[in-house]
Design a protein that fits this description.
Low-confidence stretches: none
Distance between the termini: 34 Å
Strand order of the largest sheet: 1-2
Strand content: 5-15%
Amino acid sequence: MANKKNIESTKQNRALSKVRFEVFGEEMIEKVVKSSGNSGRIYLPPNWVGHTVKIIKVE
């Protein structure tokens, strides 16, 4: 049975590994996330309101 330390190490290794995504869409904007209280925020164009978006952390 794996101990708690090994499980945490495995989770950390997965978090640091890079993966490749292939996404099809209509428009792309590259922005930097700004601090907003206890979270982050990205402002998008008003014509995107009500549409589905996908956010991918690239660095």
